[in-house]
Amino acid sequence: MAQVLVTGGSGFLGSLLVRELLDRGHAVTNIDLLPCGQRHPNLDSIVGDIRDRALLDRLMAGRRHQVVFHCAALLAHGSLKERELWSANVEGTRTLAAAVAGAGIPSLVYISSNCLWGQGFDRPVREDDAPAPCEIYGASKWEGEKILADHAGNFRSTIIRSPTIMDEGRLGLLAILFEFIAEGRRVWVVGDGSHRYQFIYARDMIAAMLLAWERGTHGVFGIGSDNVDTMRGTFAHVIAQSGSGARIGCLPKAPTILAMKAAHALRVSPLGPYHYRMIAADFVFDTTRIKAELGWRPTLTNSEMLLRAYRYYAANRAEIAARQDVSAHRRSADMGVIRLLKWVS
């Protein structure tokens, strides 16, 4: 049994990771701004802030943690102020890294993001492609990577750059798409929907995180599904398999992106600058390195994992609508001005 520290273990990915670690017989310490819904004799879950160095030192003292899985991050959703997001994601990572170094913990696994880039790519994105974030969340993740690089002599850090993480229970902005499908409305793609945007199955992500720790790796890895279908093809699969009467419609690309940017500037849309790429541009990680160095392989395609997430939403829609005090990925995002599009769909 290993002692493991998880930050953000009450969130979507973190809670699945905590459950897997407990199932494997490990003792888990979780720190999160939100309470944890899990109970287990080997789980010590603390409501707290990773910017609190004194708290981190107390949690790490005498426990001989073998690894830290750093999943905690605030998202650029809702009314969250940019300075709070930056403080939580950047200063939180800085404080955590210093505490890990001080406690002599040998390994840290950090979840980074494909939001390190604001533009699409006409080829798979490699680990040596220079990050160029276009908004604060991506910039905060890039800053976190640089903080960990500064601690290269203190502990091993594995950075996994992740696309959208998908599984049963993943909601957030996806709940808007799922609502359109559940109600049999027109599901819109931008342009002809032929762009390819990669997802990652949460269980595949967790498998990679555990392999990174177990094999003592150090470095940066892109991760994602194989055989990435077009967004139109992915949506069509979910619609067909769910029995929904939804149809796929096309929006003209240039005017739609312009309207999205205007809505974001007016703060009436949940979609930010990095979402424009998901909606209208190609983005796929090259997963050659993570497969070669960790022996990792994905198990589900985009279409398969999105269907799982939709079926969960459809089966739990009423309960989801009533949720409070859960992470952003476990509740439905506010539709904002997109509700106007729903009315004409």
UniProtKB/TrEMBL annotation:
- Upper lineage: Bacteria, Pseudomonadati, Pseudomonadota, Alphaproteobacteria, Hyphomicrobiales
Q: What are the residue boundaries of the NAD-dependent epimerase/dehydratase domain, all occurrences included? A: 4-221
Name of the protein this chain belongs to: NAD-dependent epimerase/dehydratase domain-containing protein
Source organism: Methylobacterium haplocladii
Query: Pfam families, alphabetically?
Result: Epimerase
Name the domain of life. Answer: Bacteria
Read off the PANTHER family from this record: BIFUNCTIONAL POLYMYXIN RESISTANCE PROTEIN ARNA
